[in-house]
Amino acid sequence: MKSTIIFYGPFPKKNRVGGYERCNSAIVTSFLTEYYDFIPLKIYSIPLSGSWKVLFYPLSFFLGCLVDSLKLIYLIKRKKPTIIHITSLYKWHIFREWIIVNISLFFNIKVLFDIRAGRFDTLYYKTNFIFKFFTKNIIKNSFSITVEGKRYIDFIQKEFIRTAYYLPNFINTTDSKVSPRDYCKNDICKLFFAGRIVREKGIEELLLGLEGVVPKFNIKLLLAGSIENTYKEYLFNKFPVLFKEGIIVFLGVLDLDQLLKEMRDSDIFLLPSKHKGEGHSNAVNEAMYAGLPLIVSNQGFLSDLVTLETGIVIDEVNAKNIENAIISICSDKKLLKNMGEKSRKMVIENYSDSVVLGSLKEIYRKIIVG
């Protein structure tokens, strides 16, 4: 008989491609369903935005705590779960998670607390004693702790004297063969960016760096993701030559099949993010699976994924560093090919669904047997 696992966290909205949501959805629909019955429990929130969201935040927060608690109690009574798997979020979400953990304890249900937030440790040190109290209580009362970033293993050990298991983001792989492919076809080096097209992702530094590369190489930059019209217009005005000459192409929001197709036809993946909460990006896994060398910033967990054999980590996000990184890879086709092949090999061996979910299956087994 299968054990039942309630999976509590965010789940995808319409047209949502990345983030925690897709990872959560991928877990509860994966091959693990052969061994466990998953019950998704989606975090409740009132769909508000702008000033309305600010005005009604206390009410929304209270209702979220109440609704999620009642739904959990109902599911525990009806489904008799063995494990509650909680995807941790930021800041005051910790209070809601504390309630969920303590309800689970009341009913003698074991908790797996899954930390993915890209600055969980930083916020812990910066916030007040209330936040720290709830965090400590959750870590203490959770049966197992998993983390998306390697640095959290030491953080959990140091602050809470608990063992944390590395559970990185993963990609569904259907073909594990590292197949040869052509790079810079027709002497055009295609650069690829995927994610929200916003300032904090280093977009402007990327385009400034591209201006220095253009005189030396035949370059095209493909930008996949959502962008607000005002910011798009701002970029058009700031970088008119790049747009006028067709060097930059907006692809819009792509579904997963379209994204992988565009990546397989590209040569280098860039994510020079300045976002302090950057985690283990789905897009990085997908780029590696497509056989792309990586140029990423040293933010969040990105440096966990990139070695000297698979790409370049930029310590400081600025135009010159990005320019130099692009030139160093584009100027050596042998290096480009080797990096791309090793990038694909690395994601298959370390971040594929079979490897990561195999680890999660073992963690579940240990929780169940105690």
Give a brief rundown of this model.
The chain is of the alpha/beta class and 370 residues long.
Features:
12 strands; six-stranded parallel sheet; 370 residues; 2 domains; alpha/beta
Write structural notes for this entry:
- The chain is α/β, with parallel strands linked by helices and 370 residues long.
- The protein folds into two domains: 186 residues, Rossmann fold; 166 residues, Rossmann fold.
- It has 16 helices and twelve strands.
- It has a six-stranded parallel β-sheet, sandwiched between helices. Strands 9-8-7-10-11-12 form a six-stranded parallel β-sheet, with helices on both faces.
- Strand 7, helix 8 and strand 8 form a beta-alpha-beta unit.
Q: In whole angstroms, how far apart are the ends?
A: 18 Å
Please report which band the strand proportion falls in: under 5%, 5-15%, 15-25%, 25-35%, 35-45% or over 45%. 15-25%
Counted up, domains total 2
Structure summary, number of beta strands: 12
Note the main sheet: 6 strands, parallel
Report Rg.
22 Å
Order of helices and strands: EHEHHEHEHHEHEEHEHHEHEHEHEHHH
Give the structural class. Answer: alpha/beta
Shape call? globular
CATH class of the largest domain: Alpha Beta
CATH architecture of the largest domain: 3-Layer(aba) Sandwich
Overall residue-averaged pLDDT value: 91
The CATH superfamily of the largest domain is: Glycogen Phosphorylase B
Helix run count: 16
Low-confidence stretches: none
CATH topology grouping of the largest domain: Rossmann fold
**Which percent range fits the helix content?**
40-55%
Physical arrangement of strands within the biggest beta sheet = 2-1-3-4-5-6
